[in-house]
Every structure is written in C-alpha cells, then in structure tokens.
Amino acid sequence: MKQYLKYLGIALGLLILFIIYYFLNQKFGLSIPCIFYEKTGYYCPGCGITRMFFSLLKLDIYQAFRYNPLVFSLIIIYFIKELINHIFKKQYSFSPKVTIIILIITILFGIARNTETFSFLAPTIIK
Questions:
Q1: Distance from C-alpha of 13 to C-alpha of 15, rounded to nearest angstrom
Q2: Domain positions in the chain
Q3: Other CB atoms closer than 10 Å to residue 118's CB: what's the count?
Q4: Cα 37 to the chain's mean position, in Å?
Q5: What is the pLDDT of residues 65-121, one digit of tens each?
Q6: In Å, what is the CA distance from 58 to each residue of 22, 49, 52, 78, 102?
Q7: DSSP structural state of residue 29
Q8: Which H or E run contains 52?
Q9: Which pTM was predicted?
Q10: Residue 125 has pLDDT above 70, yes or no
C-alpha cells in the first residue's frame, strides 16, 4: 500500500507540474525547445510530444495523434496492456524482444518523418 501511495504521489506531482507548464505555455508562450531539432533541423522521434499532451488536455484526439503518432500509439498500447493486467489480475509485461522492436520502430519513425515521402509524420498543425 505504501508503494502505491508513493507512485500516486509522484504521478500527482508530475500532473501538477504539467498543468503549471501548460498554463505558462498558453499565457506566456513558454515552451521547452527540442535541442535535436534546433541543432540539426531534423525532427527527433519525440518532437511534438508536448503539443500532443496539450491537445489531449483539450480532448482533441485527432490533433494529438498528428503531433506524434508513434508516442500516441505507444501510450494507447500501454494502457490497453495495463487494462488487460487489471481485468485478468495478471502481470503481463513486454518481453525484451518487444522492447527491441519498439526501439527499432522508433529509430525508423525518426528517420521517416524527416523524408519527403513521409513528411505527413512531421509534427504539424492541422487547420
């Protein structure tokens, strides 16, 4: 029970920090830049994650997916896994092979989103 409360406290603290960051971003335009993008001009596999979470706060699921489809999909997969664990009272986890496959997909996603053919994977705003 103590460990559960510890994790709940950490999650709550992170949520509060995220909400503060969201309001600072909305009010003053304060944002954390992607160092990889600033130095290279290429999108990293994580570019768009902050905007994705901001879109989720606004319940704009489509735009959240557009900002970073890989991370969005991985979060959905993770929550489905946790739901299955909870429903069946078992502790399924990803094997090392799955982790390596996810790492390879992440690298390929990072490369693909910077090519002209897959430019739709870039974290752009849909109007």
A1: 5
A2: 1-31, 34-121
A3: 13
A4: 17
A5: 999 999 999 999 988 988 888 888 888 777 889 899 999 999 999 999 999 999 899
A6: 11, 14, 10, 21, 28
A7: -
A8: helix 49-57
A9: 0.77
A10: no
